[in-house]
Specification:
This protein is α/β, with parallel strands linked by helices and 305 residues long. It has helices at 32-55, 93-101, 116-129, 141-149, 173-176, 203-210, 216-224, 261-271, 291-303, and strands at residues 2-3, 9-11, 78-82, 106-109, 134-140, 156-164, 191-193, 199-201, 248-253, 274-278. Strands 1-2-4-3-5-6-9-10 form an eight-stranded mixed beta sheet, with helices on both faces. A two-stranded antiparallel sheet has the order 7-8.
Length: 305
């Protein structure tokens, strides 16, 4: 794993370790004349057996290989993972680990969460720094960011969303939510603000609002990893968007208390996304509780299926 100054974390797939069960090769050196004679006798026996097989018309068969080569996706796209508000790149740990085990290289972006301009610029800079084709994945507000950041790019082959905003040009997050159930964290007393005015969800509200399907320990881990967020992101309009030109996949969180599942389905349908639903998933459920299924969805997108 490597990290550069922009906070981008790049992780390549693991290199298989030597088989611990493999027997060490025996050396014939230093064993004297008796060792040489035994080896010569053994070789003569092998040669005789091969000759008998040849004369009998039986093809010689090679012994089993010591290991089976695993299918490689080294030439496949890099998976770029973009977190949402009140979050950080560690939220992708389970998904990223599973992707690496399957041979993919992953890049987890660290958004400053200081506003849409900075966040979109951060993702664009990451995409510029990563060579080759890419699949870009976004959660929550990260979906809004990747929709703008990937517009007009030929190096992005697919967009994948989990419980994420997918705006059209000119739409804001607040505008998208009109007519749908509001985010639970917008209830009075559910947010706390730091000295710069950036917000986090209070620890007493976090699990119920954001991650009710997770056990308390995992929910607390996500809570402690919160990044203070400038709430101006809720009101900023989208500019040019990517989904009319780039194929998309969407995982709906069916029990989401941040983005109404009905809104998720509407945005996914408008984008023409290949859609799955995780029925009891919270807002964080797609990349935690349902991480195995979501990983497969990302891999389907990478394969263009």
């Amino acid at each position: 794993m490597s990290s550069n100054r922009s906070g981008i974390v790049t992780t390549a797939p693991p290199i298989p370790s030597p088989d611990p069960g493999a027997r060490p090769r025996r050396s014939w050196s230093g064993r004297g004349a008796s060792g040489v004679r035994r080896r010569s006798t053994w070789l003569a026996g092998v040669a005789l057996a091969a000759l008998v097989a040849l004369l009998a018309g039986t093809p010689a068969q090679a012994g089993p290989a010591s290991s089976v080569a695993r299918p490689s996706v080294a030439a496949g796209p890099t998976i770029v993972l973009v977190h949402g508000a009140f979050s950080g790149p560690s939220s992708w740990n389970e998904v990223a680990s599973a992707l690496r085990k399957d041979g993919y290289t992953t890049v987890a972006v660290t958004l400053p969460l200081s506003g849409t301009v900075d966040d979109i610029a951060t993702v664009r800079a990451t995409l510029d720094a990563v060579p080759g084709p890419k699949v870009v994945v976004g959660h929550s507000y990260g979906g809004f960011v990747i929709t703008d950041a990937t517009a007009g790019r030929s190096d992005v082959s697919a967009l994948v969303y989990t419980a994420a905003f997918v705006p059209a040009p000119g739409e804001s997050i607040i505008g998208l939510g009109a007519g749908y159930a509001p985010a639970a964290f917008l209830a009075p007393g559910h947010l706390t603000f730091d000295s710069t005015g950036r917000a986090t969800i209070t620890s007493t509200s976090f699990r119920d609002d954001f991650a009710q399907d997770l056990n308390p320990r995992l929910a607390a881990t996500l809570d402690h990893a919160q990044t203070p967020t400038d709430l101006s992101i809720l009101f900023a309009p989208s500019a040019e968007v990517a989904w009319p030109a780039i194929p998309s996949w969407y995982a709906v969180s069916g029990a989401d208390r941040v983005i109404d599942p009905a809104l998720q389905r509407s945005m996914a349908a408008r984008a023409g996304a290949t859609t799955v639903t995780f029925d009891d998933a919270s807002h964080a459920g797609g990349f935690t509780h349902y991480s195995a299924r979501f990983t497969k969805l990302v891999e389907q997108a990478a394969a263009g299926r």
